[in-house]
Structures are given as C-alpha cells and as structure tokens.
Amino acid sequence: DQQVKQNSPSLSVQEGRISILNCDYTNSMFDYFLWYKKYPAEGPTFLISISSIKDKNEDGRFTVFLNKSAKHLSLHIVPSQPGDSAVYFCAASRLTGANNLFFGTGTRLTVIP
Amino acid sequence: DAGVIQSPRHEVTEMGQEVTLRCKPISGHNSLFWYRQTMMRGLELLIYFNNNVPIDDSGMPEDRFSAKMPNASFSTLKIQPSEPRDSAVYFCASSLWGTDNEKLFFGSGTQLSVL
C-alpha cells in the first residue's frame, strides 16, 4: 500500500514561471518530510525537508509547504529554470523509530526554455 | 568523498540466472539501504542495515532476494533465480544514523534487465 502518493506523473512549466509539485500521505505518524531530485542515470539527491512542527520551509528558489490536517505537502520552485528538469520524489518518515524513508512514485518536471 | 558506489551500472541476464548487485557506502556511514525503483511503485525500500546488522527486511519481495553486509564498507543484494519482473533500477543508499539520518545519499543505481 502506497503511503506516500504523487498523483501527477509529469508536469511542464515555462522557464521563469512557478512549478508546484504535490504530494499526499496517508500515515498520520509521519512527522518529517523530504523532497529528493533525480537526474537521469543518477541517484536521487536530497533537496529540501520540513518537520511537522513547521508549515513552511524555504531554501532559495525552493519552498516546501506542509498541511498536516490535509496530509498534503507541496514543493514550489520559483522561478523555474531548465536545469530544474528532473524527477522529484516526495518522501516521509518518523523522526523517532525506524530510520527508513517512504517514497512516492515521483513527478517528472520539464522546464521549457 | 567518492559517494556511494554501486556496481555494475547495468546488468542484463536471462531468467533463472543469479544476479549479484554490489554497494560500497560512504565511509563513516553506519546505515545502508537497498531500494528498488519501478514506474508503478516508485522507490521501494527492500532492506536496511544499521551497523552491518539487518534491521528490517520486510520489503524484500520474496525468498529469491537476499542481502548481506559482511563489513561496514560493502553490501550485496542477490537475486536467485532472477525473473523478468525483477527488472528495475536498484539503488543503494547510506546515511549516518543519529544525525540527519533521513538525508540518504544514493548511489547511481544498477539498471537490471532480466530477459
């Protein structure tokens, strides 16, 4: 059973515009959320994270928003750049207990120059 | 640091053959994870080790899959016998448990094709 879901397999955005990637989770025990970015032929790399005590975390052009009541998080990229074209994975874990991450199926972002 | 090193990068084999995937984690990391990436399920955790000890192998799909970590610098994932449905990208990742352990460092993966 998929505990972390990314319902949009792909997204295309014009360069300079905002990219919004969405993620939903079902396990209310999750309290730490991450986004990973993956280029072709490479492994995923950590991008940004947020703990459940916050509802927003910002790092440069990347901002993650968390809505705990809706069990939903989103990643905003502003402005989008062609180099942002990649697959983005949402992941969740519990800060205490098992140190494994549960990943979504990924969203392929294409930024059109 | 060289990062997490996986070998081979690509593996093509025939159904029924044994396949062994290898991983060298980042030096000093004490947690190691094996993930499988498929279109339908994304990144699935197969097994993870803390200090070379398997902690959770509930994600291993069948008895055909086995993983070992004989020392802190090496791990293998073996599939015997392999089947076409095992075709996927297999990632190894490591982290330092007790710090930012959720921030996994991934290898480049092994693309496995079972014909």
Explain what this protein looks like in three dimensions:
The complex is a heterodimer of chains A (113) and B (115). With 113 residues, chain A is mostly beta strands. Helix content of chain A is 0%, strand content 53%. Chain A has no helices and 11 strands. Chain A has strands spanning 4-5, 10-14, 19-25, 32-38, 45-51, 56-59, 62-67, 72-77, 86-93, 102-103, 107-112. In chain A, the strands form 2 sheets. In chain A, strands 2, 4, 5, 9, 10 and 11 form a 6-stranded mixed sheet that branches. The mean pLDDT of chain A is 93. Chain B is mainly beta. Chain B has strands at 5-7, 10-13, 19-24, 31-38, 42-50, 53-56, 65-71, 74-79, 88-95, 105-106, 110-114. In chain B, strands 2, 4, 5, 6, 9, 10 and 11 form a 7-stranded mixed sheet that branches. Chain B is globular and about 40 Å long. Chain B starts with a strand and ends with a strand. The chains are: A mainly beta (113), B mainly beta (115). Chains A and B meet through strand 5, strand 9 and strand 10 of A and strand 4, strand 5, strand 9 and strand 10 of B.
Largest interface: A-B, 25 and 28 residues
User: Helix/strand/pairing class of chain A, anyone?
Assistant: mainly beta
β-strand amount of chain B: over 45%
Tell me, briefly, the overall form of chain A: globular
* Low-pLDDT residue spans of chain A: none
Pattern of helices and strands of chain A:
EEEEEEEEEEE
Global mean pLDDT of chain A: 93
The total beta strand count of chain A reads 11
Average pLDDT taken over every residue of chain B: 92
Query: What's the β-strand tally of chain B?
Result: 11
Alpha-carbon distance between the two ends of chain A: 38 Å
The percentage helix of chain B is under 10%
Helical stretch tally of chain A:
0
Backbone shape of chain B: globular
